Amino acid sequence: MLFFDLTLAQIVGIVVALVVGITFHEFSHAFIADQLGDHRPRALGRVTLNPVAHIDPIGALVFVVAGFGWGRPVPVNVYALRPGRIGMAMVAAGGPAANVIVAVAGAVIYRVLEMSGVDGFGLDLAFWIVLYNLLLAIFNLLPIPPLDGYNVLLAFLPPRTAFTVQRYAQYGVIVLLLLVFMPGSPLRVMFSAVGSLTGVLTGA
Question: Is the pTM higher than 0.85?
Answer without folding.
Answer: yes
